Protein backbone atom coordinates (compact mmCIF):
# COMPACT_ATOMS: atom_id res chain seq x y z
CA UNK A 1 0.00 0.00 0.00
CA UNK A 2 2.86 2.35 0.76
CA UNK A 3 4.33 1.76 -2.65
CA UNK A 4 1.01 2.49 -4.31
CA UNK A 5 0.64 5.77 -2.44
CA UNK A 6 4.17 6.79 -3.48
CA UNK A 7 3.40 6.07 -7.12
CA UNK A 8 0.15 8.17 -6.91
CA UNK A 9 2.06 11.14 -5.42
CA UNK A 10 4.73 10.93 -8.14
CA UNK A 11 2.03 10.85 -10.82
CA UNK A 12 0.37 13.96 -9.45
CA UNK A 13 3.69 15.79 -9.28
CA UNK A 14 4.49 14.86 -12.91
CA UNK A 15 1.14 16.16 -14.11
CA UNK A 16 1.58 19.39 -12.17
CA UNK A 17 5.06 19.89 -13.60
CA UNK A 18 3.85 19.33 -17.18
CA UNK A 19 1.01 21.95 -17.01
CA UNK A 20 1.79 25.58 -18.26
CA UNK A 21 2.31 28.31 -15.64
CA UNK A 22 -0.67 30.45 -14.69
CA UNK A 23 -0.44 34.22 -14.47
CA UNK A 24 -2.61 36.17 -12.09
CA UNK A 25 -2.85 39.88 -12.41
CA UNK A 26 -4.44 42.01 -9.71
CA UNK A 27 -5.57 45.58 -9.78
CA UNK A 28 -4.54 47.59 -6.81
CA UNK A 29 -7.04 49.61 -4.89
CA UNK A 30 -5.36 52.91 -5.56
CA UNK A 31 -6.23 52.55 -9.29
CA UNK A 32 -9.89 53.36 -8.51
CA UNK A 33 -11.10 56.94 -8.36
CA UNK A 34 -13.36 58.39 -5.75
CA UNK A 35 -16.45 57.10 -7.48
CA UNK A 36 -14.99 53.57 -7.85
CA UNK A 37 -15.04 53.90 -11.68
CA UNK A 38 -12.38 51.92 -13.50
CA UNK A 39 -10.52 53.40 -16.48
CA UNK A 40 -11.01 50.67 -19.01
CA UNK A 41 -8.50 52.12 -21.43
CA UNK A 42 -5.44 52.10 -19.10
CA UNK A 43 -4.20 49.64 -16.41
CA UNK A 44 -1.98 50.42 -13.42
CA UNK A 45 1.23 50.44 -15.48
CA UNK A 46 -0.21 52.67 -18.23
CA UNK A 47 -0.21 49.76 -20.73
CA UNK A 48 -3.15 48.70 -22.75
CA UNK A 49 -5.15 46.28 -20.62
CA UNK A 50 -6.09 44.13 -23.63
CA UNK A 51 -2.46 43.43 -24.67
CA UNK A 52 -1.89 40.94 -21.85
CA UNK A 53 -4.47 38.54 -23.33
CA UNK A 54 -3.04 38.33 -26.84
CA UNK A 55 0.41 37.53 -28.08
CA UNK A 56 2.00 39.09 -31.12
CA UNK A 57 0.74 36.42 -33.53
CA UNK A 58 -2.95 37.17 -32.90
CA UNK A 59 -4.84 40.02 -34.54
CA UNK A 60 -5.79 42.88 -32.24
CA UNK A 61 -9.37 43.85 -31.66
CA UNK A 62 -10.02 47.52 -32.42
CA UNK A 63 -12.05 49.19 -29.71
CA UNK A 64 -14.08 52.19 -30.90
CA UNK A 65 -16.87 54.27 -29.42
CA UNK A 66 -20.26 53.70 -31.06
CA UNK A 67 -22.30 56.87 -31.66
CA UNK A 68 -25.91 56.04 -30.60
CA UNK A 69 -27.26 58.49 -33.24
CA UNK A 70 -25.12 57.16 -36.06
CA UNK A 71 -27.29 56.18 -39.05
CA UNK A 72 -30.39 57.75 -37.56
CA UNK A 73 -29.83 61.18 -39.10
CA UNK A 74 -29.42 59.83 -42.60
CA UNK A 75 -32.45 57.57 -42.33
CA UNK A 76 -34.46 60.39 -40.78
CA UNK A 77 -33.59 62.81 -43.57
CA UNK A 78 -34.41 60.15 -46.12
CA UNK A 79 -37.81 59.60 -44.54
CA UNK A 80 -38.42 63.36 -44.58
CA UNK A 81 -37.60 63.51 -48.26
CA UNK A 82 -40.00 60.65 -48.94
CA UNK A 83 -42.69 62.40 -46.88
CA UNK A 84 -42.18 65.67 -48.77
CA UNK A 85 -42.53 63.84 -52.06
CA UNK A 86 -45.78 62.30 -50.83
CA UNK A 87 -47.20 65.67 -49.71
CA UNK A 88 -46.49 67.48 -52.95
CA UNK A 89 -49.70 68.47 -54.79
CA UNK A 90 -50.74 66.13 -57.51
CA UNK A 91 -49.98 67.54 -60.90
CA UNK A 92 -53.09 67.42 -63.07
CA UNK A 93 -52.75 65.26 -66.14
CA UNK A 94 -55.00 64.92 -69.11
CA UNK A 95 -56.88 61.67 -69.46
CA UNK A 96 -56.29 60.39 -72.99
CA UNK A 97 -59.47 59.80 -74.99
CA UNK A 98 -58.42 56.23 -75.71
CA UNK A 99 -58.17 55.32 -72.02
CA UNK A 100 -61.88 54.66 -71.72
CA UNK A 101 -61.98 56.35 -68.29
CA UNK A 102 -65.26 57.70 -67.06
CA UNK A 103 -63.72 60.88 -65.71
CA UNK A 104 -63.44 62.56 -69.09
CA UNK A 105 -63.97 65.93 -67.43
CA UNK A 106 -60.21 66.13 -66.96
CA UNK A 107 -59.84 68.56 -69.78
CA UNK A 108 -57.48 71.35 -70.76
CA UNK A 109 -55.72 73.46 -68.20
CA UNK A 110 -57.80 75.93 -66.22
CA UNK A 111 -56.69 78.78 -64.00
CA UNK A 112 -53.23 78.38 -62.54
CA UNK A 113 -52.47 75.50 -64.89
CA UNK A 114 -54.87 73.23 -63.03
CA UNK A 115 -57.34 70.87 -64.63
CA UNK A 116 -60.98 71.84 -64.10
CA UNK A 117 -61.57 68.68 -62.02
CA UNK A 118 -58.67 69.52 -59.73
CA UNK A 119 -59.79 73.12 -59.39
CA UNK A 120 -63.48 72.25 -59.09
CA UNK A 121 -65.50 69.21 -58.04
CA UNK A 122 -66.65 66.87 -60.79
CA UNK A 123 -69.39 64.31 -60.32
CA UNK A 124 -70.41 62.36 -63.41
CA UNK A 125 -71.50 65.20 -65.75
CA UNK A 126 -71.78 67.92 -63.11
CA UNK A 127 -69.04 70.46 -62.38
CA UNK A 128 -69.14 72.44 -59.12
CA UNK A 129 -66.92 75.54 -58.95
CA UNK A 130 -68.65 77.52 -56.20
CA UNK A 131 -66.78 80.16 -54.18
CA UNK A 132 -63.33 79.69 -55.74
CA UNK A 133 -62.63 83.33 -56.68
CA UNK A 134 -62.71 82.49 -60.37
CA UNK A 135 -62.57 85.44 -62.75
CA UNK A 136 -63.62 83.46 -65.82
CA UNK A 137 -65.40 80.27 -66.79
CA UNK A 138 -62.95 77.34 -66.69
CA UNK A 139 -62.65 75.07 -69.74
CA UNK A 140 -65.32 72.40 -69.58
CA UNK A 141 -65.49 68.92 -71.03
CA UNK A 142 -67.93 68.20 -73.85
CA UNK A 143 -69.63 65.71 -71.50
CA UNK A 144 -70.62 68.41 -68.98
CA UNK A 145 -74.38 68.48 -68.30
CA UNK A 146 -74.59 70.77 -65.24
CA UNK A 147 -72.27 73.67 -64.42
CA UNK A 148 -72.32 75.55 -61.10
CA UNK A 149 -70.05 78.53 -60.54
CA UNK A 150 -71.74 80.58 -57.83
CA UNK A 151 -70.14 83.27 -55.68
CA UNK A 152 -67.11 83.90 -57.84
CA UNK A 153 -65.73 86.97 -59.62
CA UNK A 154 -66.65 86.27 -63.22
CA UNK A 155 -67.45 89.57 -64.94
CA UNK A 156 -67.95 88.48 -68.56
CA UNK A 157 -69.41 85.53 -70.43
CA UNK A 158 -68.02 85.11 -73.93
CA UNK A 159 -69.14 82.89 -76.78
CA UNK A 160 -66.16 80.56 -76.37
CA UNK A 161 -66.94 79.79 -72.71
CA UNK A 162 -69.69 77.31 -73.59
CA UNK A 163 -68.87 76.52 -77.19
CA UNK A 164 -69.65 72.98 -78.42
CA UNK A 165 -71.18 71.90 -75.10
CA UNK A 166 -74.12 70.12 -76.69
CA UNK A 167 -75.02 68.16 -73.54
CA UNK A 168 -75.10 71.14 -71.18
CA UNK A 169 -78.54 71.38 -69.50
CA UNK A 170 -78.04 73.77 -66.60
CA UNK A 171 -75.86 76.83 -65.90
CA UNK A 172 -75.85 78.53 -62.50
CA UNK A 173 -73.74 81.70 -62.23
CA UNK A 174 -75.38 83.27 -59.19
CA UNK A 175 -73.58 86.23 -57.59
CA UNK A 176 -70.56 86.78 -59.83
CA UNK A 177 -70.69 90.44 -60.78
CA UNK A 178 -71.37 89.61 -64.44
CA UNK A 179 -71.86 92.81 -66.43
CA UNK A 180 -71.42 91.64 -70.01
CA UNK A 181 -72.65 88.59 -71.92
CA UNK A 182 -72.01 87.98 -75.60
CA UNK A 183 -75.33 87.77 -77.41
CA UNK A 184 -74.64 84.28 -78.75
CA UNK A 185 -73.01 82.92 -75.57
CA UNK A 186 -75.99 80.62 -74.80
CA UNK A 187 -78.01 80.46 -77.99
CA UNK A 188 -75.87 77.68 -79.50
CA UNK A 189 -76.58 75.26 -76.64
CA UNK A 190 -79.23 72.84 -77.96
CA UNK A 191 -79.82 71.07 -74.62
CA UNK A 192 -79.82 74.07 -72.29
CA UNK A 193 -82.94 74.11 -70.09
CA UNK A 194 -82.09 76.10 -66.95
CA UNK A 195 -80.17 79.38 -66.74
CA UNK A 196 -79.66 81.07 -63.37
CA UNK A 197 -77.97 84.49 -63.40
CA UNK A 198 -79.21 85.93 -60.09
CA UNK A 199 -77.42 88.74 -58.28
CA UNK A 200 -75.22 90.08 -61.06
CA UNK A 201 -74.87 93.36 -62.95
CA UNK A 202 -76.50 92.29 -66.21
CA UNK A 203 -78.10 95.06 -68.27
CA UNK A 204 -78.91 93.04 -71.39
CA UNK A 205 -80.35 89.55 -71.44
CA UNK A 206 -78.81 87.63 -74.39
CA UNK A 207 -80.69 85.44 -76.83
CA UNK A 208 -81.58 82.05 -75.39
CA UNK A 209 -82.31 78.71 -77.09
CA UNK A 210 -85.94 77.50 -77.46
CA UNK A 211 -85.21 74.54 -75.14
CA UNK A 212 -85.44 76.69 -71.97
CA UNK A 213 -87.64 75.60 -69.05
CA UNK A 214 -86.32 77.94 -66.31
CA UNK A 215 -84.86 81.45 -66.54
CA UNK A 216 -83.82 83.25 -63.38
CA UNK A 217 -82.33 86.73 -63.84
CA UNK A 218 -83.47 88.26 -60.54
CA UNK A 219 -81.54 91.11 -58.92
CA UNK A 220 -79.89 92.58 -62.02
CA UNK A 221 -80.22 95.84 -63.97
CA UNK A 222 -82.26 94.98 -67.06
CA UNK A 223 -84.40 98.10 -66.93
CA UNK A 224 -86.77 98.99 -69.76
CA UNK A 225 -84.47 97.89 -72.62
CA UNK A 226 -82.62 94.89 -71.19
CA UNK A 227 -85.02 92.26 -72.57
CA UNK A 228 -85.31 91.80 -76.31
CA UNK A 229 -88.73 92.05 -77.93
CA UNK A 230 -90.60 88.73 -77.93
CA UNK A 231 -87.60 87.18 -76.16
CA UNK A 232 -89.63 84.27 -74.74
CA UNK A 233 -92.12 83.73 -77.56
CA UNK A 234 -90.44 80.68 -79.12
CA UNK A 235 -89.91 78.71 -75.90
CA UNK A 236 -92.72 76.12 -75.87
CA UNK A 237 -91.39 74.41 -72.75
CA UNK A 238 -90.71 77.46 -70.55
CA UNK A 239 -92.18 76.88 -67.08
CA UNK A 240 -90.52 79.39 -64.75
CA UNK A 241 -89.57 83.00 -65.49
CA UNK A 242 -88.08 85.01 -62.64
CA UNK A 243 -87.31 88.71 -63.25
CA UNK A 244 -87.56 90.16 -59.74
CA UNK A 245 -85.69 93.40 -58.86
CA UNK A 246 -84.65 94.56 -62.32
CA UNK A 247 -86.37 97.95 -62.64
CA UNK A 248 -88.50 96.55 -65.49
CA UNK A 249 -91.37 98.83 -66.52
CA UNK A 250 -93.39 96.34 -68.59
CA UNK A 251 -94.28 92.66 -68.80
CA UNK A 252 -92.32 91.00 -71.63
CA UNK A 253 -95.01 89.62 -73.92
CA UNK A 254 -95.95 87.34 -75.52
CA UNK A 255 -95.49 84.70 -72.85
CA UNK A 256 -95.54 81.00 -73.86
CA UNK A 257 -98.62 78.97 -72.98
CA UNK A 258 -96.50 76.54 -70.97
CA UNK A 259 -95.52 79.16 -68.37
CA UNK A 260 -96.52 78.26 -64.80
CA UNK A 261 -94.74 80.85 -62.67
CA UNK A 262 -93.95 84.51 -63.41
CA UNK A 263 -92.14 86.60 -60.78
CA UNK A 264 -91.98 90.34 -61.44
CA UNK A 265 -92.04 91.77 -57.92
CA UNK A 266 -90.12 94.93 -56.96
CA UNK A 267 -89.98 96.42 -60.45
CA UNK A 268 -91.48 99.53 -62.05
CA UNK A 269 -94.52 98.04 -63.83
CA UNK A 270 -97.43 100.49 -63.91
CA UNK A 271 -99.84 98.93 -66.41
CA UNK A 272 -101.20 95.53 -67.48
CA UNK A 273 -102.94 95.30 -70.83
CA UNK A 274 -105.89 93.01 -71.55
CA UNK A 275 -103.84 90.90 -73.91
CA UNK A 276 -100.91 90.46 -71.50
CA UNK A 277 -102.26 87.14 -70.20
CA UNK A 278 -105.68 86.73 -71.81
CA UNK A 279 -107.23 86.78 -75.28
CA UNK A 280 -109.64 89.71 -75.53
CA UNK A 281 -111.19 88.17 -78.65
CA UNK A 282 -112.02 84.88 -76.92
CA UNK A 283 -113.91 85.29 -73.68
CA UNK A 284 -113.86 81.55 -73.08
CA UNK A 285 -110.09 81.38 -73.12
CA UNK A 286 -108.63 80.03 -69.87
CA UNK A 287 -104.93 80.01 -69.17
CA UNK A 288 -104.77 77.05 -66.79
CA UNK A 289 -100.98 76.70 -66.53
CA UNK A 290 -100.14 80.17 -65.20
CA UNK A 291 -101.03 79.82 -61.52
CA UNK A 292 -98.29 81.93 -59.93
CA UNK A 293 -97.98 85.60 -60.93
CA UNK A 294 -96.14 87.96 -58.58
CA UNK A 295 -96.53 91.71 -59.09
CA UNK A 296 -96.14 92.92 -55.51
CA UNK A 297 -93.73 95.79 -55.07
CA UNK A 298 -94.78 97.49 -58.34
CA UNK A 299 -96.57 100.85 -58.66
CA UNK A 300 -99.71 99.27 -60.08
CA UNK A 301 -103.28 98.94 -58.87
CA UNK A 302 -104.57 95.53 -60.02
CA UNK A 303 -108.18 96.43 -59.32
CA UNK A 304 -108.15 98.96 -62.15
CA UNK A 305 -107.59 96.34 -64.89
CA UNK A 306 -109.66 93.27 -63.96
CA UNK A 307 -110.06 92.19 -67.59
CA UNK A 308 -106.26 91.71 -67.87
CA UNK A 309 -106.20 88.54 -65.71
CA UNK A 310 -109.76 87.27 -65.85
CA UNK A 311 -108.52 84.21 -67.76
CA UNK A 312 -106.07 83.21 -65.03
CA UNK A 313 -106.91 80.48 -62.48
CA UNK A 314 -105.68 82.81 -59.72
CA UNK A 315 -105.49 86.57 -59.25
CA UNK A 316 -101.91 87.91 -59.36
CA UNK A 317 -100.29 88.85 -56.08
CA UNK A 318 -100.01 92.62 -55.80
CA UNK A 319 -101.66 95.85 -54.74
CA UNK A 320 -105.44 95.77 -55.15
CA UNK A 321 -106.08 99.27 -53.83
UniProtKB/TrEMBL annotation:
<dbReference type="InterPro" id="IPR032675">
    <property type="entry name" value="LRR_dom_sf"/>
</dbReference>
<protein>
    <submittedName>
        <fullName>Epiphycan</fullName>
    </submittedName>
</protein>
<keyword id="KW-0964">Secreted</keyword>
<keyword id="KW-0433">Leucine-rich repeat</keyword>
<dbReference type="Pfam" id="PF13855">
    <property type="entry name" value="LRR_8"/>
</dbReference>
<feature type="domain" description="LRRNT">
    <location>
        <begin position="116"/>
        <end position="146"/>
    </location>
</feature>
<keyword id="KW-1015">Disulfide bond</keyword>
<dbReference type="InterPro" id="IPR000372">
    <property type="entry name" value="LRRNT"/>
</dbReference>
<dbReference type="InterPro" id="IPR001611">
    <property type="entry name" value="Leu-rich_rpt"/>
</dbReference>
<keyword id="KW-0272">Extracellular matrix</keyword>
<keyword id="KW-0677">Repeat</keyword>
<dbReference type="InterPro" id="IPR003591">
    <property type="entry name" value="Leu-rich_rpt_typical-subtyp"/>
</dbReference>
<feature type="signal peptide">
    <location>
        <begin position="1"/>
        <end position="18"/>
    </location>
</feature>
<feature type="region of interest" description="Disordered">
    <location>
        <begin position="75"/>
        <end position="106"/>
    </location>
</feature>
<dbReference type="InterPro" id="IPR043547">
    <property type="entry name" value="Mimecan/Epiphycan/Opticin"/>
</dbReference>
<keyword id="KW-0325">Glycoprotein</keyword>
<keyword id="KW-0732">Signal</keyword>
<comment type="similarity">
    <text>Belongs to the small leucine-rich proteoglycan (SLRP) family. SLRP class III subfamily.</text>
</comment>
<dbReference type="Pfam" id="PF00560">
    <property type="entry name" value="LRR_1"/>
</dbReference>
